[in-house]
């Protein structure tokens, strides 16, 4: 739902990632969907603090009618891009990455959050080789889901979906694990 750019935080002097959507280029239906996704992502990320979750820095609306989420910049890019570029990873690195991703998921699930779109493109690697979960636009807080009885809402990327999710059944913590 947006483009991601490298930016510079002039206050702290740090390189940051800037996730942006242009509000003026969208029809009303698409705009509502994008805004809902961005609001959900901001709401969830602003409450998280874990070494395996991308750090939320802030959000702004620009003069030229763009909404931006400012995030920690992970210089290594996504696991999907790393595999695309280097073709394979050795077993010890896969174990290391898997453990880190599971630690991030454990933290999310402990805090009643289901990611719902775990895939290589949504797992970033920082300069120290630490994996960080990102893209929380499709995530849900479980309490919200139970109250609204909306656990079966269709979110995520089909190739990485748990079978129960693809069949429009209940989304659970186990769906994230299956996707991993």
Can you tell me about this structure?
Helix content is 36%, strand content 23%. It contains six helices and nine strands; from the N terminus they run E-E-H-E-E-E-H-H-E-E-E-E-H-H-H. Strand 3 and strand 4 form a beta hairpin. The radius of gyration is 16 Å and the shape is globular. The two termini are 22 Å apart.
Explain briefly what this protein structure is.
With 180 residues, this protein is of the alpha+beta class.
Query: Segments where pLDDT lies below 50 for 5+ residues?
Result: 144-152
Estimate what percentage of residues fall within beta strands: 15-25%
Task: State the end-to-end CA separation.
Answer: 22 Å
Radius of gyration: 16 Å
Largest sheet, order of strands side by side?
1-2-4-3
Question: Helical content, roughly?
Answer: 25-40%
Categorize the overall geometry.
globular
Task: Give the structural class.
Answer: alpha+beta
- Compute the average pLDDT: 84
Strand-helix topology:
Elements lengths: L2 E7 L4 E9 L5 H18 L10 E6 L4 E7 L4 E2 H8 L4 H20 L2 E2 L8 E3 L5 E3 L6 E2 H7 L14 H4 L6 H7 L1
Antiparallel strand pairs: 1-2, 2-4, 3-4, 5-7, 6-9, 7-8
Top keywords for this entry?
single chain; 180 residues; alpha+beta; four-stranded antiparallel sheet; three-stranded antiparallel sheet
């Amino acid at each position: 739902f947006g483009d991601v750019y490298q930016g510079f935080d002039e206050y702290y002097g740090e390189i940051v990632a800037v996730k942006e959507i242009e509000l003026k280029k969208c029809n009303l239906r698409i705009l509502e969907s994008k805004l809902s996704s961005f609001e959900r992502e901001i709401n969830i990320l602003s409450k998280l603090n874990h070494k395996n979750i991308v750090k939320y820095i802030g959000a702004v609306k620009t003069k030229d009618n763009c909404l931006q989420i400012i995030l920690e910049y992970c210089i290594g890019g996504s696991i999907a891009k790393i595999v695309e570029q280097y073709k394979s990873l050795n077993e010890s690195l896969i174990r290391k990455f898997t453990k880190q991703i599971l630690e991030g998921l454990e933290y999310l699930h402990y805090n009643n959050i289901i990611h719902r779109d775990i895939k290589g493109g949504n797992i970033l690697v920082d300069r120290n080789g630490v994996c960080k979960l990102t893209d929380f636009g499709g995530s849900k807080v479980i309490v919200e889901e139970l109250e609204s009885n909306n656990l079966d809402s269709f979110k995520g990327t089909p190739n990485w979906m748990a079978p129960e999710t693809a069949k429009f059944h209940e989304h659970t913590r186990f769906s994230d694990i299956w996707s991993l």
